[in-house]
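Annex B. Sample input.
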Amino acid sequence: MNYTEFTDAIVKNTQNAAGKECRIFINQVVKNNNTRLDGLVIMEKDRNMSPTIYLNDFYPKYKKGMSIEKITDEILSGYYNYRDTFDMNTDFLSSFENVREKIAYKLINRKMNEELLKKIPHKTFLDLAVVYYIYLSDKDGALASTLIYNSYLEAWETDLKTIDEQARINTPQLFKARIRPIDRILENAENNSVSGLKAEDEFDESDYTFPESLKLCDPYKSMYVLTNESGLHGAACILYKRPLSLFGKKINRDFYVLPSSVHEVIMVPKFSDLRKEDLSCMVRDINKTGVSPEEVLSDNVYEYDISTDTLKM
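Annex B, continued. Sample output.
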């Protein structure tokens, strides 16, 4: 069956399995970078919010032989696991005082989100845009949040300056920065494990510790990943006050910042035999083959100047 027939079958099968007390429908969602996805919504009686389950990722599984019944079971299992994370009184969002300490920021590509940026408060940063959202909760790597639109500011009787100032306070506290050597991350990935990282191999904004290996860096063994503890929207850590400057002071040289995705950046100390053009090609290749379209941040490479404490194109 084609994709449309597949989504119709999933809706019908999920409705039968969930029962008449649930309303099942598909909502097309415009995600980051104008990526459009088909989200399955399971709305139970007496609930006003629900996690969105994107069907686009399930169709390749079906084409490879996974049955509609098996896919339905996986969808419902995920729904029942996360539904309480998304259950809240939406009246909570109507008051600025209720959400003040939950306002955070993230980075998105400015050019690829021109239509969205017309609807939301934002600030420009390099070729990117700083946008704001309300952090609700997270569970097992799933973040429950809602983007702040211009209409929210009108309802709250507040402005961009106010939410930006609040986000700059909240974000580093809600999502602490962390730097780790990329070879250690790859090693853990090969072992299918995220454990085993020693304290000295991590950077935490609360204590600003660095791995000892930073003292022995070279062009091929000194790539470091900057993200946050949740690993979600971690590229925004380049806006924090201290991680970049402290990293530069520790290595005592300028460095490149590669925007590998909206979730993380890679920092590479500058060496004479390291060409920016090669790094730019690497970023473009990763964006084309290794990052989903909605998670691409930029094709450009940034440079951090330790003498001026600035990040530039």
